[in-house]
Design brief:
The chain folds into three domains: 71 residues; 232 residues, no CATH class; 124 residues, no CATH class. The longest helix is centred in the middle third of the chain and has 34 residues. The protein is mostly helical and 445 residues long. It has 18 helices and no strands.
């Protein structure tokens, strides 16, 4: 069949299709699905016998419009934000553990290069850290406060400046992934050498112990997240330079999408590290046991969430998903014991059948659990900083206390709303899933 004959035979059907798409009235799903099948049949014919023609492009556009009409109003479950942090992001990290190890090795070697270079060249530290920073730190050492650099700025301003700066560093590590090893390697090398120079500089002047207990309060999370961002950059670079069986543009789109997800997922962790640096690190007078506890807790958390939990989740989902949610819920209950225990006790008192804390917590909606955990974090961090102030006897300004008050109030509101909305949230998620299944089933039929 010639192309002109094909056009004359089917153009009325296509015009009817266009009018239906342009109409503001609701379209019958059965009619829509029937037209979609007919259009895709015509598109297959055009691709076979008239490849590259305007007819093929026209039909492809129509097919894309009907696909958009079918799926544009499909609602995502409102628990997607929670499952992103509990499932999607950890599984994404599991797929990039090799890149994470490479970025970590580059960073670790760069730290040693910084230490060895500073040891063999007295001017190397000034070249890397800058004269102003070195001179101000030497002045603080002379005054008996080598970590005074963390006290030289308003807490509130320091928190936001550091959070935004760290976020930009992470996004830069990802974006330079387009240059593959050269770009990511440079960022890992640059940050690793700076850290090595800084630690050697303080150690050379007899303050290594103080520097370790102070810097790593926020450094554990901050440095680790920079390494994770480097792994995301490597992943994006691999998608460009080694696309495999995929077309390069398709592979790059997939790699960039995964790298962007990792970058966005790191933002809350950078704000957490910035909170430690702005509101807790400055209290160098706190007992060593308190600082060691914060550093050890941060190290355990990042290793568990970024390394071990992705592996556990992968094998649990692959082999057996039964009981996984209840185990995770119970672990979260243990972590948030100071806040969750009394709340769950109150809930349990109102039930006819008394349940154990593990079973009770496992019955909560995942979104409720997420909101309770988030509320606990918003309450715990200001309280931790306030305890440090009481221990050291150093007070903050009024702006900081107002900020702390807002965080605590937000945390309490999140916990209360999570518990009040538990049943309603679960019902809403079920309704969304039910309607999506019905619509999908209708179009498939």
């Amino acid at each position: 069949m010639k192309e002109i004959t094909f056009l004359r035979k089917n153009h009325e059907k296509w015009l009817e299709f266009e009018k239906m798409l342009s109409s503001k009235d609701a379209v019958n799903p059965d009619v829509l699905s029937d037209l979609f099948v007919r259009i895709t049949d015509d598109l297959s014919w055009a691709r076979t016998f008239y490849p590259g023609s305007s007819t093929e492009r026209y039909l492809n556009d129509l097919a894309a419009r009907i696909h958009q009409e079918i799926y544009k109003n499909k609602k995502e479950s409102r628990s997607r934000l929670i499952t992103f942090w509990t499932n999607e992001f950890p599984l994404l990290m599991r797929g990039h553990l090799g890149n994470l190890m490479i970025a970590f090795l580059i960073f670790a070697v760069s730290v040693w290069i910084g230490i060895i270079s500073a040891q063999n060249d007295s001017e190397f530290v000034r070249i890397i850290l800058g004269d102003y920073y070195v001179d101000s730190t030497l002045d603080n050492m002379a005054n008996g406060d080598p970590m005074g650099v963390y006290k030289s700025e308003n807490q509130f301003a320091m928190f936001f400046r550091i959070a935004l700066n760290n976020t930009m560093v992470a996004l830069t590590c990802i974006m330079v992934g387009v240059f593959h090893w050269m770009g990511v390697g440079f960022m890992m090398f640059r940050n690793g050498v700076m850290l090595g120079c800084f630690m050697y500089f303080l150690g050379e002047n007899g303050f290594l112990r103080e520097a370790t207990l102070t810097v790593w309060i926020h450094g554990v999370i901050e440095i680790w997240c920079i390494i994770v961002a480097g792994a995301a950059g490597i992943a994006m670079g691999n998608s460009i330079w080694f696309p495999g069986a995929w077309p390069r543009s398709v592979a790059f789109g997939r790699g960039a999408r995964e790298a962007l997800k990792i970058g966005l997922a790191l933002i809350p962790f950078f704000f957490l590290a910035a909170f430690f640096e702005g509101f807790i690190t400055r209290y160098t007078q706190m007992p060593d046991i308190g600082r060691i506890a914060i550093i050890a807790g941060s190290a355990v958390f990042v290793l568990w969430y970024f390394v071990f939990y992705p592996q556990m989740l992968f094998y649990k989902l692959k082999k057996n998903t039964a009981g996984m949610s209840s185990r995770i819920a119970f672990v979260l209950w243990l972590v948030t014991l100071p806040v969750s225990a009394p709340i769950l006790f109150i809930i349990n008192r109102s039930r006819e059948k008394k349940l154990s804390p593990r079973d009770l917590f496992a019955q909560l909606n995942p979104r409720t659990v997420f909101m309770v955990i988030s509320g606990f974090v918003l309450i715990f961090l200001p309280l931790l900083s306030f305890v440090m102030q009481l221990v050291t006897g150093i007070r903050s300004d009024s702006t900081t206390y107002i900020f702390f008050g807002l965080l605590v109030m937000s945390g309490l509101v999140m916990i209360v709303l999570a518990l009040l909305w538990n049943d309603r949230i679960e019902e809403e998620d079920l309704n969304i899933a039910r309607k999506s299944d019905q619509i999908q089933g209708t179009y498939e039929r």
